Amino acid sequence: MVVLDRALTVSGWSRLGNVPKGIVAMIFASLFLAIASALTKYEVALYPTGEVLFVRSLASLVLCGSFILPKKGLAVFDTNILGAHAARSLSQSVSQAFTVLALGLMPLSSTIAINFSAPLWAALVSAFWLRERLTSQRLAFLIAGFVGVLIVANPGASTLQLGSLFALANAVMYGSVTVAVRRMTKTESWQTLLMWQLLLIAAMHSLLLIFGCEAIELKDWVLLFGAGFANGAGQYLWTRALQLGPASAVSPFYYTMLAWAMIIGFLFWGDVPSLALVIGSVVVVGSGLMLLWHEASKRPAASQSDKLPQRA
Predict the structure, then answer these.
(1) How far is 84 from 268, CA to CA, in rounded Å?
(2) pTM of this prediction?
(3) Residue 26 near residue 231, CB atoms below 8 Å
(4) Distant-in-sequence, close-in-space partners of 14: CB < 8 Å, separation ≥ 6
């Protein structure tokens, strides 16, 4: 992480104001996260899903722990709500498994487009779980977003149907976890949330090794750890972006991940975005941005943890 900060400094990072810094950090976060998804998609075609998940999770834990533990020490694990951390991590470990399964069945950009509906599901769950008021504007944005998901999923195409269901299941679970995280941030720091999350997810994914484990070639070890490192770097830059600027300014640039995914998908798999994907993505992203604007206008002083769902 220090290397990332130094690289950004060399590139002129230090001369930017906080909000431009946040925007740059978010753009790079989306790039790293798209790379992590692409590497995962490549490797899951060669090795068992559980093995790919475990190695990627372990790499993310090693990377983030290497810069958090020297500063915070083992005190970062101090918590009074271990059960909540375990429940959240279990949900996210299953959510990530759905994502990897979807990546194995769908184009990269389609999977990411459907995953972008997670904030919409979070808003829906909040209305019922946290008793937040479901205004007519909010409801309209949610309905539009879900229509966009249906367009991207293209339920009439049987070859993509199963993958779409996995991607949608991930979005629903991820959105639900976001609501739980909003409660946990009242007592937990982002470092504690992140370290418990990565530690427990890696432990849970290790259990999947009993369903299949193959000898991994050296180049694939590099790519798998590369996926974990890219994921960890993306998580760090995403968090940094929200520290530097308000969500309304930096969060829209998170959606550049879809553009990166389309470029990577075309270059490495020859995936040409369909008209349904483009239209559906515009609807999903547009609904997410309008929902973000609506929430920001209602709660301008919202805490950083409410701004975007945490990634892992």
Answers:
(1) 40
(2) 0.78
(3) no
(4) none
